[in-house]
Amino acid sequence: MNLTPAQTASLTAQETTEAYLFLLDVYFNGVIQYRFTSDAVDTVYATNTYEPFPFDIYLPTSREGQPSAMQLRMDNVSQRMIDEIRTSADAIRIDLFVVLGSDKSLMRQETNFSWRNLTYDALSISGSLTLEGFLNEPYPYKRLDGDFAGLH
Fold first, then answer.
1. SS3 sequence, 71-103?
2. Is the pLDDT of residue 132 over 60?
3. What is the pTM of this model?
4. How far out from the chain centre does Cα 130 lie?
5. Are β-strands 108-120 and 31-37 bridged in parallel, bridged antiparallel, or unpaired?
6. With left for phi above 0 and alpha for psi between -120 and 50, is residue 29 left, alpha or beta?
7. What DSSP string runs through 96-131?
8. Cα-Cα-Cα-Cα dihedral of 93, 100, 47, 113, to 10°?
């Protein structure tokens, strides 16, 4: 990803006029059910429309002996969403996108999480966002297959 000097300054500044939006794709049983944005209006990104929905993302705390996990809390949830959680056979998958509000094609980061350890009541759902299998991936991530004779 290439950033202009103005974008880099905006990203590292103590205060900025640039808005960074969080977009969520929520999957139940492997099928996308919801698309939410942290913005107050509908957000169109990659031909998909994301609806405004109240949610908070809490950055991970460092605990010795445990992998870090972010927390996701959604407020004003519907009974339909609670029923889907209760009947979901698989872990709930959350795809998180971070984009610039002014130009969504310039800055984006996508990460796929599992939403686990859920607690819910009539008003909200909370749980941990974890990267599945991250620690079990081979190192190095991509291995050379011998096609590049000069790289051994």
1. EEEEECCCHHHHHHHHHCCCCEEEEEEEEECCC
2. yes
3. 0.75
4. 10
5. unpaired
6. left
7. EEEEESS-TTTSEEEEEEEEEEEEE-SSEEEEEEE-
8. -10
What pLDDT digit, counting tens, does each position of 88-98 carry? 878 899 998 88
Strands across the sheet with 31-37, in order?
Answer: 43-45, 48-52, 31-37, 20-28, 92-100, 108-120, 124-130, 70-75, 55-58
**Are the C-beta atoms of 130 and 69 separated by less than 8 Å?**
yes
Q: What is the pLDDT of residues 27-86, one digit of tens each?
A: 998 899 999 999 999 999 888 999 999 999 998 777 777 767 789 999 988 888 888 888
Burial 66-97 (b: 16+ CB within 10 A, else e): eeebbbbebeebeeebeebbeebeebbbbebb
Interacting residues of 2 by C-beta distance below 8 A, sequence separation 6+: none
Q: For residue 76, what are its two tokens?
A: 């004003």
In sequence order, the β-bridge partners of residue 115 are 92, 129
The residues pairing with 48 across neighbouring beta strands, listed in sequence order, are 45
